[in-house]
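Consortium newsletter contribution from the modelling node. Members have asked for a concrete example of what our holo predictions look like. Here is one, prepared for the iron/sulfur cluster complex that several groups have been discussing at recent meetings.
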Amino acid sequence: MNVYDGDRMAELLTDQGLSAAPEGDDADLVVLNTCHIREKAAEKVYSDIGRLRRDDGTAPLIAVAGCVAQAEGEEIMARAPSVRMVVGPQAYHRLPEMLADATHGKRVTDTDMPLETKFGALPSRRRSGPTAFLTVQEGCDKFCTYCVVPYTRGAEVSRPFADLVDEAQRLVEAGAREITLLGQNVNAWTGEDGKGRTIGLDGLIRALAALPDLARIRYTTSHPNDMTDALIAAHGEIDKLMPYLHLPVQSGNDRVLKAMNRSHSAESYLKVLEKVRAARPDIALSGDFIVGFPGESDAEFDDTLKIVGQVGYAQAFSFKYSPRPGTPAATMDDQIPADVMNERLQRLQDALNRDQMAFNQASVGKTCAILIERKGRHPGQWLGKSPWLQSVHFEGEAAIGDIVTVELTSAGPNSLGARLLQPSHA
Ligand code: 5AD
Ligand code: SF4
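And here is the predicted structure:
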């Protein structure tokens, strides 16, 4: 979502007459778009601010945006005098006015979460690569005890159906072949279709699938409790909806899940996956995991390894628990020592990497469509994505944005090699 927000800020500033500084060039303005989800991500902003100081002691105009700005705006202003603007994730449509003030020497902060959303104030989409993000939902009301998102992004809000169809249409006109629908809780999206009926994410996907030049639809990230039967069924019914589902579970142990306030059990999560696999047997599954949540015992961690073994993920993201200021878990007893967390993370990642490799190896020999995203590292080589979100490289007559048919011929842990069978088709 930060990539999406970054694009929107860039578009907004372009309309003010600014243009992107080439990588490595001295910029007049630098916007640091930050993440507060874990401590490591949040700390990065201070080292980045320091690095922006030029040899002669001057610095560009610096704006700190994103969730660190939202959560620690005052602290940033106090700690980093070179920062002139602090702008939260729900206020960045106000960047132009803030920039006008900042260029007149003021230091300005806007971390409001206005009810009237920022989206209406942003310019419409005019540029896109072959793949595009589209934020359909923001914020979260789930309050998992480790997570800052409900505090930094605010309450759950769904963008209106008509606005989304319009933005998707414009992205497609600008060249998008694939759109990934984004939300902290994307499958909680709800809206009213053109006929006044209340619909869920499945209904939105169905409507977007009707855009003729849009070839692929994905969505991320979802909560297990919002995987409705209608959304699960959509995986079996809508060809353009790619066979990939990112569904975080965080832990395989029910006591830990309860302490996390996840409001699902290991079993209810597995039940959802069972239904998804019944609807779309070739679906690739992905998940998020946290190791070392306060109080997690060795045996409880083993349950996480167990669920990993049961699911067989094609891809996954795993993290050491990071205490976040203001969240209930940060003050829980029995915080887990770093060495224990490190050891658990290593064991979990070994298991996840093995499964990812196995998934990739099992794909060898398959014929599938690849959406070409960019040139590869070698001359004449292309890089694209399989329907299962694997990176695939191959050579042949093709162009960025083409969807080509290949045979997958070799597998590595993070990418596959392929042979081009059939050049571009729509
Ligand atoms: N510590 C570690 N990982 C976290 N995540 C969210 N909050 C924390 C935290 N405090 C992880 C979860 C979530 C992903 C986006 O980041 O796994 O699904
Ligand atoms: Fe955070 Fe996701 Fe839980 Fe919401 S559902 S509180 S975004 S981990």
